[in-house]
Amino acid sequence: MGPWPGWSSLLSSFAGLTVTLGVLSPVLTVARGVPQAFRSYRSDAVGGVSEGTWLLLMAVAELWLAYGLLFDVPAETAANVPNALLATSIAVRVAILRGSLARGVASVALLSAAAAAVALTGLDKNLRWVLSVVAVGSSLGLYLPQLARVLRDDDVAGISTATWLLALLNSISWGAYGLLIHNVPVWLPSAVLVPSSAMIVLRVLRRRSPG
Asked: The pTM is what?
């Protein structure tokens, strides 16, 4: 008796979805920061924007870039060079507008040095687990500073809603992609990032709704 007739078609569908998400996830990772960058550089409004989240996004992008190179995950490699640059530009712009440029530059340098130190451990195959653990652990808390800020502050004038809608879609996409390629470090952060980004979107929309 031959295999179930629809099995080949199902496998083909999953393979196609994996390829699609492997392209879509990096695109969304980069696209996520674009609306916030435009808003930050077009306007002087920084109300509600968490500088900490963008600094974390920069450092974690550097970690995932190293992860993608060492563990052969091309989607991570493609996404995280422009992702790190965008996150850095946003964090620096927010620091400038808040009059804390020196502190912002120091934070960028410190976090980048820490990410580089962790990435270097991956050159030893026996220590690559360190890079995986730190990358995943850091990713879990990426959006928490921004979530804490929107829950605390009434002023959300500086936040780009489009960025956080893209962040939500991005988290869903990486979660699905990680599951399809059976890579726990790729999908696990989405378990926290999906609800975190959803709550940020809802909170910003509620703050901006009339009445």
From this structure: 0.86
